[in-house]
Amino acid sequence: MLNEEYALFLGCTIPIKNQEFEKASRLVLGELGMSLENMDGAGCCPNPVAIQSLNMETWMALAARNIAIAETLDLDVLTLCAGCFETLRSVNHMLKNDSKYKRKVNEILGKAGYEYMGSLDVHHFVSILSQDEMLDKIKSLVTRNLDLKVSSHYGCHLIRPSAHMNFDDPERPLSIDKIMKRIGVQTLDSSEKMTCCGYCARLHPEIGQALSERKMMELQGINADCVVAACPACANQLSNAQRLHNKEETSSSELDVPILYVTELLALAFGHEPRELRMKTKMIRPTALLEKIAEN
Amino acid sequence: MENSQELINVNDLQLDFRHELSAMINGKSLLNCIQCGVCSSGCTVSEWMDLQPHLVVSSLLLGMKERILSSRAIWMCSICHRCTERCPKSVDYSFLLTLLRNLAIEEGHAPPEYTADLENVFSAGFALPLHGSMFKSVNRRRERNGLPELAPADVESIRSIIQVTGLDRCMNKGDEQSNVE
User: Fold this and answer.
1) Domain of A278: which CATH number?
2) Which residues from B are below 8 Å from A201, CB to CB?
């Protein structure tokens, strides 16, 4: 049996920049019977690349502080972002399995007025929604037929390192595809399906640009109606790379593949209107996709 | 590689570096490396790397501490974790790389992109800038989108953690005045 109540960890990018992802997620998770408690006082997860690269101990202690807030609510943590998921799930795993570091982190937290106990688990909405019980519920709520072909973009930090994330295959994941199939959406396989968006190599932005552009060219070539993502950093990177490509005078073709969040497609399938979901505010406008939906 | 002809003076090597690194949290797996190259063959960013992952590891095992800590290679990684996932000897390369970044930062090589994130976290608790009236305008936008108010982070405790772990030394402008209003 899955829990019905979770402590919702919002992080930074979603509540500040990508509020449309939060909106769709709250609608869908609520309709699936999940109740979400706010984690007052929580902050950055913190960022699994920048802050972890600066100092492992600071990264672990800041993450443990966030988990400690959920512990006072006595609820498992639910994240909407793959980056937050990696930080909180990894730190939780490491501290639960290393009493020396748990003691060390608690010495740091004690001075800040917190204590990490290691009493709960951390989830991403994809790790919950892809379980059989939820997949059946999802199917029962579908009221709109979405005749779409999409490419799932898992995001490295959702599924790896599998020693910590451990809910899907680290190289051939199926969870997002399973969710899409239950709402009647066809998922496409391609050689670029598992390509990293490259955002996290952000000290050298040309790397992310090249990786994302290559990926989006192939997905446009196989006529994907959209990419479906579970991480705001990936979603923004894949959109922005297309915008930059289209601005380039030397580009021979225009890239035009919208990026939707997993929960945005679920909300559309559950009958919510594109207007309510602010679909037209996306950087790569899903014009053709919305026309396709309106025809059904 | 351009420098493949270069001679290395054994006196310049820090032969005990492998022990320094392997004593750090989760650092032990370094010693398992058999130089098979699986990490490099699957590396997302290998086409941009001046030093492939398995060569970073062999350099570490040889004790070429300074060369690695001042290399470009440790900053190009996208942390996709495929190397860690595929290693037949369970070397956690992506984690080791993060430890190397920690050591490089201790030597003063902190990238401004990362310290900017840290300064944001120190200022208002979030990685995105939220100083001055920005917090209020985010909440106004949330209200228009039908979302509940975003609660301020417990900034005092976050600052305490950053200071106790000594990371405040990486900040250029730890401005305590410009925070949540």
Assistant:
1) 3.40.50.11810
2) 44-45, 48, 76-78
